Task: inverse folding
């Protein structure tokens, strides 16, 4: 908890895939892909990475001239690189803007985020490819941000920072015998005592059952004998009357 921060100081695909940066096992294929990736930043990119802004979620119709018009209000721009498809030449929806001064960079980072350009709300952050150790781009399963619909959410960046972990107290329940040794002993002894009583009760009931059967049988035979004697006495009275 002491070294926790909402923004990642070093890129870890596993931590970036966790809402609070505490996951210990990958939960989707993109995380596995990012963990196995060996990404080397583009060496052909020139300029100072510490003075460069990353601008994303651009309208595909937005041009370099439009970006220069909007971002030059924060300070002098040294270079704008709008990333385009090598085959078609169409915009991919993100760009890199290098300023001449750090003051202009910080101002644009603070004020230009969520600015609407050509009916699109843009996202602005510092360049991370050359400044954040271990960086893996989103196309390889890494990155920050992402959409829930695509099944790839990443945390630890400006767009979706980490949430502070919740430390729950380690409370043990005595219901499953996780309490003190004395309580466990008492519960075991009490259980044994009740089990012994139940066994004794069952045995005594089994012993009394044949006796009841015999008593019922004895009662039935005695009633039959009494009825026979009464019938024989009745016949003797009739014979005497005759």
Result:
């Amino acid at each position: 908890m002491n070294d926790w921060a909402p923004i990642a100081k070093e890129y870890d695909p596993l931590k970036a895939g966790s809402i609070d940066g505490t996951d210990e096992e990958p939960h989707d294929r993109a995380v596995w892909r990012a963990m196995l990736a060996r990404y080397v930043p583009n060496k052909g990119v020139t300029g100072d990475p510490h003075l460069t802004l990353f601008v994303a979620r651009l309208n595909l119709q937005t041009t370099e001239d439009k970006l220069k018009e909007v971002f030059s209000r924060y300070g002098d721009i040294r270079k704008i690189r709008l990333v385009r498809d090598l085959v078609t030449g169409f915009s991919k929806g993100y760009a890199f803007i290098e300023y001449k001064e750090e003051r202009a960079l910080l101002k644009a980072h603070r004020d230009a985020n969520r600015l609407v350009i050509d009916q699109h709300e843009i996202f602005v952050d510092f360049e991370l490819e050359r400044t954040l150790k271990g960086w893996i781009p989103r196309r390889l399963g890494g990155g920050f941000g992402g959409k829930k619909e695509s099944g790839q959410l990443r945390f630890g960046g400006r767009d979706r920072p980490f949430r502070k972990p919740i430390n729950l107290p380690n409370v043990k329940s005595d219901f499953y015998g996780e309490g003190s040794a004395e309580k466990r002993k008492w519960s075991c002894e009490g259980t044994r005592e009740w089990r012994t009583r139940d066994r004794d009760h069952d045995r005594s009931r089994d012993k009394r059952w044949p006796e009841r059967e015999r008593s019922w049988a004895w009662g039935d035979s005695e009633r039959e004998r009494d009825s026979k004697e009464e019938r024989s006495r009745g016949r003797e009275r009739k014979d005497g009357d005759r």
User: Anything to note?
Assistant: Residues 1-39+134-161 form one domain. The longest helix spans residues 181-241.
